[in-house]
Amino acid sequence: MPVFEYVCKSCSRQFEQLVRHGDHPACPDCGGEELEKLFSVFAAAVGGSRSGPAPGPCGTCGDPRGPGACSMN
Ligand SMILES: [Zn+2]
Question: Pick the residue with more confidence: 11 or 59?
Fold first, then answer.
């Protein structure tokens, strides 16, 4: 399950959040949804290694929603 790290654009709070398909994370402090996604961390330490390219910024889809956005579809 992907964990995304965000920075709130309103209060600059930085936090990590599990985001499932269709979820819209909000700032735990101010509830703001204007968030900047920093990067994603997959729980590979628990679930073992994934085959294929390492998880990280998507270099193929160019999705404006940010790195990894295409994998949420
Ligand atoms: Zn905030």
Answer: 11
